[in-house]
Task: inverse folding
């Protein structure tokens, strides 16, 4: 009996590792534009690509859906999340207000250990500002914001922020990968962190609102690139203006 449990546990661990590898590869394809919004993520194609059964592929697709990078449609399958520019910008408008409120509440409610954790994390992020450390920086950036959300001590606010982040996940991550230098964003984090440490909740709120709004501007560029690539693949090209006669 113990042997059977051990074998089942080992099989599960192997399957989870394979699914994680598929998630990382597909996520990279989405963020680099190899897979475009609306593209179908076919189970059989992915199973053949990674030389695995369809079980870990299904698990990977569920994880991608949970992250907001894909969506499942009844009787049609799983597709890369497709959103319009208007939807993304509208979501960012809401997200800017929610995260600003989060910063204000966190400034008031974070404990001293939480503020110290935020400072330590901020200094760790300095090592990953160039493009070679982009993946690590993005992971730490998510942790930075999650510490603020936890520090706000408001589950309802967290729920709404998570919903917005899921909706803009593909373009948000894509924009972070497309930025050449994260120094500007890191400087914004430094000012925000100082306002929180100083207990200036109004300043923290204003800085976070501006921080999120600037990210929305970067998203415009990412979606423009994706649209151009989609037009190229589909064989259509933007109409050129005729030269003046």
Result:
């Amino acid at each position: 009996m113990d042997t059977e449990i051990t074998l089942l546990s080992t099989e599960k661990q192997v399957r989870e590792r394979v699914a994680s590898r598929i998630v990382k590869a597909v996520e990279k394809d989405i963020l680099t534009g190899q897979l475009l919004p609306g593209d179908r993520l076919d189970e059989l194609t992915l199973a053949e690509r990674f030389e695995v059964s369809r079980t870990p592929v299904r698990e990977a697709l569920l994880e991608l859906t949970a992250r907001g990078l894909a969506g499942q449609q009844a009787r049609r399958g799983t597709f890369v999340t497709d959103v319009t520019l208007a939807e993304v910008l509208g979501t960012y408008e809401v997200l800017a207000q929610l995260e600003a409120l989060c910063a204000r509440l966190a400034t008031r409610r974070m404990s001293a250990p939480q503020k110290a954790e935020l400072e330590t994390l901020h200094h760790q992020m300095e090592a990953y500002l160039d493009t070679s450390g982009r993946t690590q920086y993005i992971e730490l950036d998510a942790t930075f914001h999650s510490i603020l959300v936890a520090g706000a001590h408001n589950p309802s606010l967290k729920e709404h922020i998570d919903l917005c982040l899921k909706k803009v996940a593909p373009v948000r991550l894509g924009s972070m990968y497309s930025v050449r230098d994260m120094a500007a964003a890191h400087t914004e984090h430094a000012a925000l962190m100082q306002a929180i440490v100083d207990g200036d909740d109004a300043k923290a709120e204003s800085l976070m609102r501006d921080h999120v709004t600037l990210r929305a501007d970067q998203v415009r560029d990412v979606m423009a690139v994706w649209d151009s690539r989609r037009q190229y693949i589909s064989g259509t090209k933007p109409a050129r203006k005729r030269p003046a006669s």
